[in-house]
Design a protein that fits this description.
The chain is 29% helix and 37% strand. It is an alpha+beta fold.
């Protein structure tokens, strides 16, 4: 639990001490304040962050088409076991078969053109050699020789162009074959069909940018819970923190888990409004779960963030806050306790922050003590400095602690039906 939240819990509405209370303190009134008390104990405190979310498989695969086509066959139903490499969906492939045939014909034509250009170049090459020999003998002019050599260069260029066209035709054929192969949809994961979104006869909209999911396959042997944790609590979490998971469908049974991942980016809802909430996704790996667990089930998670086995513990409501500059030292008469020296020094030093305090009962007097708090449990908070086990502190009521009670007040312990507080008062 963060310091901010803790102050909200233990401070409540203690921003200002009421004028009536201030007047009472300044006047040194000895009016008796009725309080409830509790003994400072030493016990185990467990700090917990609670969250809720949904169960999901750790590994799942969406089966979607990369090419468009009518669905001819779906080879599985929800709940079926499937194996890696199994064909799950057949799409209408008629136009893709036709495209392959067309590309094969284009490739044959390109190869024939290449062969023709190769033969032409061979003829041109022979003619050029003869022209070169005639030029050496002075039987033809230089321009005739240049013309023959130009024809040869054109023949080489035409042959190279024909080769490129063959390569292009081969690439088109490969693409057509690839599209044809994608009319059969395989699973890359062995698992269970957890969801089918399409039916036979529907059109699968093939796209590489936005999936049109036909079905989802999941490995249900490994499960996790995805929860959202408030921004004030997420800072308390660490990878590997243990958790207790309660699945709504399985009653009060608890399952163990570990914090696997904490998101770095926030999820903000109601941005710019009074209802704005900022959470972070946290992934909890389930170490154990029932066989009938299914993706999408609701879960509540308690994440154990800290444990203190031998903490000096007081009720959460016993710790309240006061503003140092508004705390007045009570100049009491005989038998009247006054504020501790540490608090008084902080007042004179001009401390502006709120300080956490408790009220210790000493001879029917409420003595205010500054405390240093540690972790917070369900009903108790750890005290690191300020009080000792066995001391009696004020635990209620809320109004008395938050506004009324001041250092040095004379108190009377409220009698309870079980007689506990009555005994303490004697």
């Amino acid at each position: 639990m963060t310091k901010k939240k803790k102050y909200m819990m233990i401070g409540g509405g203690v921003l200002l001490v009421g004028a009536l209370v201030a007047a009472k303190v300044m006047s040194g009134s000895d009016e008796t304040v009725i309080v409830q008390v509790e003994e400072v104990t030493k016990e185990k405190i467990v700090e917990i962050v609670a969250a809720s979310g949904k169960v999901q498989p750790i590994i799942s695969v969406d089966i979607a088409a990369n090419v468009s086509g009518k669905i001819l066959k779906i080879m599985a139903e929800e709940g079926d076991k499937v194996k890696e490499g199994q064909v799950l969906v057949y799409l209408d492939n008629a136009r893709y078969v036709a495209a392959v045939n067309q590309r094969m014909a284009a490739l044959r034509s390109a190869k024939a053109q290449e062969a023709l250009e190769r033969a032409n170049l061979k003829v041109i090459n022979s003619a050029t050699r003869r022209q070169n020999e005639l030029y050496k003998k002075g039987l033809i002019s230089e321009s005739d020789l240049e013309g023959a050599e130009g024809n040869y260069e054109v023949g080489v260029a035409r042959l190279n162009s024909a080769k490129e066209f063959v390569s292009q035709s081969e690439a088109f054929l490969d693409q057509a074959n690839d599209d044809l192969s994608k009319t059969k949809l395989y699973t890359s994961l062995s698992g269970i069909v957890v969801k089918i979104n399409k039916e036979v006869g529907e059109i699968a909209l093939g796209s590489q940018f936005q999936e049109d999911i036909i079905m989802t396959i999941a490995d249900l042997t490994e499960m996790e819970v995805l929860v959202e944790v408030d921004e004030n609590d997420v800072v308390l979490l660490e990878i590997g923190d243990t958790t207790a998971i309660e699945i709504d469908a399985f009653g009060d049974e608890l399952f163990r888990g570990l914090v696997e991942e904490v998101a770095n980016s926030a999820i903000t809802r109601g941005l710019g409004t009074q209802e704005q909430v900022t959470n972070f996704e946290v992934t909890i790996r389930m170490l154990e779960f029932p066989k009938m667990l299914r993706p999408g089930m609701s879960a509540s998670v308690e994440i154990i963030t800290n444990v203190s086995d031998y903490a000096v513990a007081v009720p959460i409501q016993s710790v309240t806050v006061r503003e140092p500059k508004k705390i007045k030292r009570i100049e009491g008469g005989e038998g009247i306790a006054i504020a501790s020296n540490r608090i008084e020094r902080e007042i004179h030093n001009g401390a502006d922050d709120y300080v956490e305090v408790v009220f210790v009962i000493e001879d029917d007097i409420a003595v205010m003590r500054k405390v240093k708090t540690g972790i917070t449990g369900e009903s108790k908070i750890e005290i690191l400095e300020g009080v000792l086990p066995g001391e009696m502190i004020v635990s209620g009521s809320y109004r008395v602690l938050s506004k009324t009670l001041q250092d040095g007040d004379i108190v009377k312990i409220e009698e309870e039906s079980n007689g506990k507080s009555e005994e303490l008062s004697h």
